[in-house]
């Protein structure tokens, strides 16, 4: 652990703004009856419920099941049937006893929700339960709300939800999702930081997160995919090929935004290290394929072959490193040479000239992930890339994005290749698909053709406020400036 | 509410002694695995469990079900199937989330148990849960343990369990049971006080409880069957015919033990009031029958007819009042006259000369409850009573005691009529039946012929440490003095 970096991370730890939201109660519930409270929008915070008894003096503990739901749909779900591979512990269901009535029950855990559903599992024949008041102390490290933009009702709705999504994920760190994992992930951080620069401009929070990753890198410079901060700062034991490389553009974007030379001086060696480490995955200039699930992320799709996309991310990151070095008036030529040979080899190895698309793996799989990353890596020029994206759109078999994370990169690729109109259309359709389904915050996963998707074996653990989906607020301000 | 009495009750509120009990952990549990910790004896207190993770850094909340069991048998019970008429909230099952590991989870609720069973409902594929330590801060207002008595291994075992039972129920009040209802009940109080005088001699706790009942009596002098103390002191909305009358002997016993004239002066008018109130249930000198369940307790038997027993309790209480008045050099003659006429009428109305037993109700039901109370009321002389009890024992159809509460009165009746040997034998058999089944504390209910009995529709809510069963410690010291 680099204690100097850790100290710098801790020095940039933000204070949280606490705000109280209250809904009126008054409902009287008998055993097995339920009530739902709607706070009107998504909140992250600490709930408190005021209970009393109606009838004779309470003479037995009341037993209550309290569910915290991010979406209205979750209210009706049978969470007990969830049997997926990630922890049931993420399901925001609590079973509580009330020994004394009246009482104010303050939950010690933080929840992410819009709705609170309370079900009386037991009272006694002598009393019914009354819920007198429900309140939430919401927390965020985002500054006060900023004005919404967008040129249509739909765009304004999307922007509002995007801003909300980002602010809900801004806590002591940029969290991936305030319901799950409540944790700093590198891939999410990069998109949050980009959106933050266009919106809340809480740049010290980006700095803190960069230092947290740097502090927890291992002796060889491997950056973890995510960082734990409780009970102490600690790295996860896994790295992702693409996430580690994306440390470079995250650092570059931060420098472009802030001009903070001290941070660059501290963290540049680690950024360079990422190229050195990633290079080991190559046979000459061609990246090795790997069937280990999760070695490289790209998108939350189990079918996706990652080989070609990983090479594209490498080129993208190395190009960014070269740009950064040049801005610092340092020698970038070894990286530029490497970019050139890796790009040439990528075209040779992955580009299917007949189809005009990049393919990946032995099965020569076509996917948005692969092609989008080659566009972002600017292996071809903008005009060629625009045509490539047209062909991609027309390709029925191409594996589509499943996460807003991958969808962000698709929109970025459209913007980079000059097709702002299509970029905007995609945002309207994809993110608009969520707002039209009533989203208060954007979701971790959204497949318009299969909205009940979950890679976890059950929707009950999906996150419905997820950082990586906040980028419409970035695109609106950076690319659709006339709005 | 009589605030003067309340003040006196509060002034006598005891301090609790806190003691820490620890069992070593070290068990590593995967999802669905369980572990049981045995504290070696029954405890009342606040548990704390130290958890940590084994494997990679914890990356999801752990979900644990923790059950607190008074008996080993409960460990195997399916509590989720309980569907009886009193609150499921009494079942000592907790479902907790652990968001940060390692952690020490301190339960805020008080539990009564010997065993703690923890079941891991969820971790994540990356870690298993380790329980490092389990401790309990036990609480009681009983003084340090006192020497066990008894002339055999069995009697010593019974006495030890009886002492433990009483001390576990001695908290800020004499509670009926530390699992359920955790509350001051008049019928229990009387037996606890009797045992207390022979053992812990915490007489201020008796005083406090007498004042709590007196403070919460209504304007007409009706004493509640039980008193709530949380959040504030308050009476229950029900009175029991026999319990209210038993305020008189409870006060009398307290006076005999302490000579505390101040308390007698305060509470005697209320004691007299009980006779006045009870008298209203009579048609002339014969008590009215009542089919309302629970108007008079006597025993936890749904089949029991209470008419005759209630009249016996009345006579017993009124006789005690007369004794008390005489000791205070006051005029007891109106009560003595009433006792005489009520006794005569009872014999006329309830005594079946042919069978030589008291009967109750239209069905002329024979029960231990009815006959025992007539023995205690000394409607006949001791020798006659001894014969009556012999006939009772021989009567196959007599409804037997189901609670240790009723069993106490049977043993008292045997002792009062001079049959110490039989009293002792009954204790050995009945209470010994519980110790032989592994009881650390005596139970609320014990029917040797049907040990799985519950009047609540399910054993899961039965109390296995119940005040009214502590009286062997009283009998051993008061009647079997040679032991």
Which key features would you list for this structure?
elongated; 2 domains; three-stranded antiparallel β-sheet; homodimer; 483 residues; Jelly Rolls; alpha+beta; Glycosyltransferase
Overview of the molecule:
2 copies of one chain form a homodimer. The first copy, chain A, is α+β, with helices and mostly antiparallel strands. The first copy, chain A, has 2 domains: 17-140, Galactose-binding domain-like (Jelly Rolls, Sandwich); 153-478, Glycosyltransferase. The first copy, chain A, has helices at residues 3-11, 153-169, 186-198, 203-215, 241-245, 247-258, 261-279, 307-327, 333-350, 368-376, 382-394, 404-416, 420-436, 472-478; strands spanning 17-29, 34-55, 62-69, 93-98, 103-106, 111-122, 127-140, 184-185, 226-228, 234-235, 282-283, 286-287, 351-352, 357-358. In chain A, the strands form 4 sheets. In chain A, strands 1, 2, 3, 4, 5, 6 and 7 form a 7-stranded antiparallel sheet that branches. In chain A, α3 packs antiparallel against α4 and α6 (247-258) packs antiparallel against α7. The two termini of chain A are 46 Å apart. Chain A binds chain B through residues 56-57, 59-63, 85-90, 94-95, 97-103, 109, 121-126, 180-181, 183, 228, 230-231, 234-237, and chain B through 56-57, 59-63, 85-90, 94-95, 97-103, 109, 121-126, 180-181, 183, 228, 230-231, 234-237.
Secondary structure tally, helices of chain A:
14
Distance between the termini of chain A: 46 Å
Query: Quick one: biggest sheet of chain A?
Result: 7 strands, antiparallel
Question: In the CATH hierarchy, what is the class of the largest domain in chain A?
Answer: Mainly Alpha
Biggest interface and which pair forms it? A-B, 39 and 39 residues
CATH fold topology of the largest domain in chain A: Glycosyltransferase
Q: Give the helices and strands of chain A as they follow along the chain.
A: HEEEEEEEHEHHEEHHHEEHHEEHHHHH
How many individual β-strands of chain A?
A: 14
Strand percentage of chain A, roughly?
15-25%
The mean pLDDT of chain A is 96
Secondary-structure content class of chain A: alpha+beta
Looking at the chains present, what oligomeric state does this protein adopt? homodimer
Radius of gyration of chain A: 24 Å
Could you say which overall geometry of chain A the principal axes of the C-alpha atoms support? elongated
* Sequence stretches where pLDDT stays below 50 over 5 or more residues of chain A: none
Share of residues in helices of chain A: 25-40%
Count of discrete domains of chain A: 2
Give me the CATH architecture of the largest domain in chain A, please. Alpha/alpha barrel
